[in-house]
Structure formats: C-alpha cells, structure tokens
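Recall the central idea of this unit: under ordinary conditions, the amino acid sequence of a chain determines the structure it adopts. In this exercise we apply that idea directly, starting from the sequence alone.
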Amino acid sequence: FVDDLQVLELLCPEVSPSLPIQRVAGVQVIRWGAGLEVAPAAVVIETFGCQLPDTLISAMAAREPASLWINLEYLSAESWIEDCHGLPSPQIIGPEKRFYFPGFTEKTGGLLREKALLLKRQQFTQMDRLHFLRQLGVNPSPGSVLVSIFTYENESIVSWLETLRRDERRFHLLVPTGRISKNIQRWLGVEALAHGETHSRDQLTIQAIPFVRQEDYDLLLWSCDLNLVRGEDSFVRAQWAGKPFLWHIYPQGEDVHLKKLAAFLRHYLDGVGVEAAVATERFWGDWNRQNSLQESWTAWQKHWPDLERNAEQWCSQLARQPSLAESLARFAQSWYKSRAEIAPPF
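Accordingly, the structure predicted from this sequence is:
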C-alpha cells in the first residue's frame, strides 16, 4: 500500500501512477485508500506508524489464526531501540502488535540487503563503471574526484562549493534532480539545472543528471568516490557501496536529529583513528547544522585513506548480520512456533 505512486514511479518506472491496483516485479502495489477489501495476511507490516484502517485491524483479529501485526519503525542507531526491539505493543482492539526496529547491531532487525548485492558490487568493473557513466552522459576528467549529492536543502553547500573550486584536485559533482538543486542553482547563478548540462568553476564541475531508478542509483554510488546522501534509503545504500559518504539526516525540532546522528557515528567510527573520527564528526556536524564547511572539509579529506578503509570495513561488518527481510521472516516464524497449537503459515 503506497500513498504516492508518482514518487514510486521515479524509483521503479514500471509503476503506473494511474492504476490503483497493479502487480510490479511480483509485488502487488495498491494505492492507499483505493477501497479494496483485502483479506488479512498471516503477517501484516505497518511501516513508520502509517496507521492501518480499523476495518483491516478488525479482520486481522478475527482471522484464524490471528495475524501477526508488526510495527516496522524508523531506522536509528540509538541504544534504547535494542531494548524495545521485538517487544509487544498492547492494543485496545486488534491482534498482538510487535515493535520491530531496523538497526546496525545484532540486537536489532538489521538493514535491507538483497541477496548477492555485495557480490554484484565486487563484480562491477572499471569498464562497467565507465559504461554506466557514459549512459548518464558523464565523462569526468582523468584523476578528478567524482561525487554524487542527494541531500535536503542546505545553505552551507555554498561554502563547500567555494572550497572545492579552489582545491588542488579536480571535483566532478553529479546532482540528480532533488531538493538540493535550488541551492546549487543559486550558487551557479542559473535558473535551472538541465540534465546533462555541465557548469565549470575553476577546479569544480557540476553536472545535473536525471533521477535514476533504484538499481541504477546503486551503480551511481559504486561509481563515485564520495556520496552525499539523506534520510534512510540512500543512507543505507551508501553504506552498502563501501565508499566514504556524508549523511544529511532528516532535520527535527530541538536538534533531536543531531543526537541520532551522533549515535550512528559512535558505531560507524568505532574502528577509526582519533583524528579521522574527530574530523568526521566535525564535517558531518557542520553540514547538518548548516555551518561553514571550509575548515571541516579541508580537515576531513586529509584522512581519505582511513575513510575509505573504514567505509569498506563497516560494510563488511554489517554484511555479517542477517538482512532486515531475513530477520523479519525468522521473527514471524518464531512468533508462530511459540504458539504450539499454530504451525507457521509460510
């Protein structure tokens, strides 16, 4: 069930926004509010507190056996989620509901990861990279640092772009259509960033590219030396890319998001030297506070070998844990088996 099929179409072009009910890649996609009477499944996953319809909740409770109701929460690295992961959430009406937290440790549900994802990445050759970039119309200068940027609006990008243009190295910045585009347009002094168009300022080249489908976004991350990402999904995919990245966390009131950022960095930087860790905390912090990035970026990139090594080690560490999908399936099987009279329905 999805409430915005047009956004989903950007990630999966096979989706038709005009169809309230459709099957895509083996998955039935239903527009939220389409009015379809759906028979409750053995397991119903409610994502991000989307609030299931009362009629469905009642049907889940009346089902024999009753549905397992899972509340899949937002991704967080905060320690308290380990204590709440898998706990019941008492309901006035409906079947038993369980909290389920994605996360970065073995005491959480893990992260989404398709089978053989990392093998595909390992098999992605330099020739594959060049071919993919050519398809996007990207032809970076030899030796230039290729950067993808998919973040929220941020005024501090101005100081970063000014710093990049004066750097000793050349930088090629790839900008998929997104919320940061207007900040970049203002800095360039242009009204729009047309796909394929490049703008050069001294050592910096900026190129707009289309919003790519999910599979191609992975290839984009693999092709770049540095990835700036946001929210949850691109944040997770950047970690599977095994490349240095910056996370623009979704801003929240009273700087709650900065606490969540710090919680992740405590995990992510656990195996990094002190100086590289401090530089990362400062650069990420300046970006997310919209401070000037001139000094923190300069200090951060001095630790590039350590940053590259840590990104790959972190990816390998995460890959040793079950994926979120695997964990969910095991959790559901265990839940049904714990009720001796009920055999797992899958």
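The mean pLDDT is 94.
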